[in-house]
Amino acid sequence: MKYEVLDHMADVMIRCTGKDLCECFENMAYAMFDQMVDTKNIEHSVEYNIEVSASNDEEKLYSFLSELLFVMDTESLVFNDFKVTIKNDTVKCRSKGEHLNKRKHRAKSEIKAITYHMLSVDRDIPAVTAIFDV
C-alpha cells in the first residue's frame, strides 16, 4: 500500500512510508491525487516537471505538495505517476498524467490546501505525514 489514511476530525491526514525519502514523497503525491480523483483511470498523455527548494525536510514536503496542488488548480492536470529526486535543498519531480476530465475522473474530495499542522518527515523510518484541508 502506498499510503494510509489516519483518523482526523475534519481534514484528511495521510501517512506514507517508502524505501527512501524520495519514495515517501512520491507516495504522498499519489495519495493527495487519490483523495481528489479516481487515479486508476488517469492515462499518461502529459508529463509535467516541477522543482521546489526549501531549507528543511518539512518545508520541502510542504512546497512540493503545494506546487502539485497549484498545477492541478491552474492547469487542470491530474497525475498518478511520480518520480522524485531530492538533492540538498531541491526537490525535483517528473509527474505523469493527463488533463482533468470530469466524466472520466470521478471526483472525490476537494483539497483546498496543505497544512503545516502535524506535517512531519522522518528520515529514519522513512515516513512522511501531511494533513490536507478539505
Notes on the protein architecture:
- By secondary structure, the chain is of the alpha+beta class.
- 26% of the residues lie in helices and 41% in strands.
- The chain has helices at 21-36, 57-75; strands spanning 4-6, 12-17, 46-53, 77-87, 90-99, 113-122, 127-133.
- The strands form two sheets. A four-stranded antiparallel beta sheet has the order 1-2-7-6.
- Strand 4 (77-87) and strand 5 (90-99) form a beta hairpin.
- Helix 1 (21-36) packs parallel to helix 2 (57-75).
- The longest helix has 19 residues, at 57-75.
- The protein is globular and about 40 Å long.
- It starts with a strand and ends with a strand.
- 29% of the residues are buried.
Keywords:
single chain, 134 residues, alpha+beta, four-stranded antiparallel beta sheet, 2 helices, 7 strands
Spans of 5+ residues with little confidence (pLDDT < 50)? Answer: none
Structural class: alpha+beta
Give the H and E element order: EEHEHEEEE
Could you tell me the radius of gyration in angstroms? Answer: 14 Å
Quaternary structure? single chain
Q: What would the average pLDDT be, to the nearest integer?
A: 94
Tally the helices.
Answer: 2
Write down the overall geometry.
Answer: globular
Please bin the fraction of helical residues: 25-40%
Q: In order across it, which strands form the biggest sheet?
A: 1-2-7-6
Largest sheet: 4 strands, antiparallel
Relative strand content: 35-45%
Number of E-type strands: 7
N→C terminal distance: 23 Å
